[in-house]
Write a structure and sequence with these properties.
4-stranded mixed sheet, 2 domains, ECO RV Endonuclease, Chain A
Amino acid sequence: MNAVREFCRVLDRRSVIATLGTQRQAASFSASSTGTPELRDRLVRRYQDSLAEFLNRSARSCLEMIGDEYKLDTLAPVAELRSALWIVGATLEANGAQHLGSAYQPTPIVLSGRLVFQGAVHGQCPDSEAWPRPVPPAREVAHVDSEPESMEELLHNANGLVGLRLGARGRDKGAWGTKAAELLGVRERGFAEADWRGEVEIKTLPVARDAVGWWQVKEDPAISMESVDPRIKLNKVLWIARVSDEPDSPILSWYYQEWDARVQVLAARYLHHRPKGPKGTTSKGWYMQKRFFLYSGFLRSLNG
């Protein structure tokens, strides 16, 4: 059984046309003599392999129409309605809920109102007793007297960061990153070298909860200046998640990741360069699009 086909049976002609295309295309479909069954088949063919994309594409009125058929709460926020309909559809396709959340039927989360699938954790991160990770209680700063001698010591120090409050940033945009590195016992090397012994780059990432409570990355982080090969910085990275919607900037977690074939594909897709510096600058830098962190496992390490 295909869930998209079952859901499309419920939609009237206007809803099918609205889901199929843009306003201009919708006007063309409405004026054509193409029958509603043919339009439904076209919609099914487009989305039959992606229930999540079908639900993301569907307007609230369409979601309510399908939700009424399956006795769902159609007054719920659209994000909750999409999520509930995905569970209904996935259960129909698997003839039960036994596979939900497994590798066979991974469950999407809702970010910014859309269903998205998080990439599997593809690195190291601390354990958590609850998901999404709760903001940890405040802890005292553990003074580090010398630079870590090994990766194990560096990650041990990273565990000591979780729960620390970085406080207000001030004028310098790099202040949080510099402070996090110092607390790890690392002096940032800056321009063309990774921070720890020229091997591991340390990057803070601002994260915040969305309306449902899932963690998401707030902005595209800067990786390097345009003249520096960003792979130098991305070869080995210790990402430090900093809660940006709390004034004292708690450190939520960390995620250590090494460059491999998977990261290479994602970096090729999501690395981009743009002006870096104050308004009117001619300097450019390499930035990583936020979607990289959805598929690289970083968000899974925060949301479970």
